[in-house]
Specification:
alpha+beta, three-stranded antiparallel β-sheet
């Protein structure tokens, strides 16, 4: 009985002293958290970049409404959406068809505008019904809300980054302003 125990003990000590393959074992322990961190950072960076692009596009397009250029040219909702999409795609290619939703409303006062902000995310679902296009006239108060449906690229992060039930994140950009007294 003593001999097998000595052999096992000797093999265990030799295994503990061995250094060959330790790098592979260490990498195996660190690889999963490292790659999770890298994919998570890439995902959040892409979402942040898309949100910034959306904010810039909304600011540029809202300016044409605020200055009356859209109203004087008779711009339709489809033309405003196309302008937004062009601005969005200056830095990164985003699919606007079926993913970009625009809601432009006019109000009599800033109080009415801030009290009338309905959340389009109901019960974990995005509800685009009820969005309209009313850019107003001179000195009207206008709220421009733009929603973009972002598909989470890394499936393992859907639970973390998604804000609707189908693994997507709704990016939102809003501008509230009073139209200029354009002529």
């Amino acid at each position: 009985m003593g001999a097998p125990r000595k052999t096992f003990s000797r093999k265990l000590r030799r295994f503990a002293r061995a250094r060959r393959g330790s790098t592979a074992v260490e990498f195996g322990l660190v690889a999963l958290p490292f790659f999770l961190l890298m994919f998570g950072l890439a995902e959040i960076s892409m979402i942040g970049f898309a949100q910034t692009s959306l904010n810039n596009a909304v600011a540029d397009t809202s300016r044409t409404i605020r200055l009356g250029q859209a109203q004087r040219s008779g711009a339709t909702q489809a033309q405003i959406e196309a302008a937004l999409c062009d601005d969005l795609n200056k830095f990164m290619l985003l699919e606007c068809d079926g993913n970009l939703f625009v809601d432009i409303d006019r109000f009599d006062s800033f109080t009415n505008a801030s009290n009338n902000a309905a959340d389009p995310i109901q019960n974990g679902e995005f509800q685009p019904a009820g969005m309209g296009y009313s850019p107003g006239v001179q000195s009207d108060i206008v709220v421009v809300r733009v929603y973009y449906r972002w598909k989470i690229m890394t499936p393992m992060f859907e639970a973390v980054f998604a804000n609707v039930s189908n693994g997507e994140r709704i990016l939102v950009s809003t501008m509230m302003f009073r139209n200029e007294p354009y002529l």
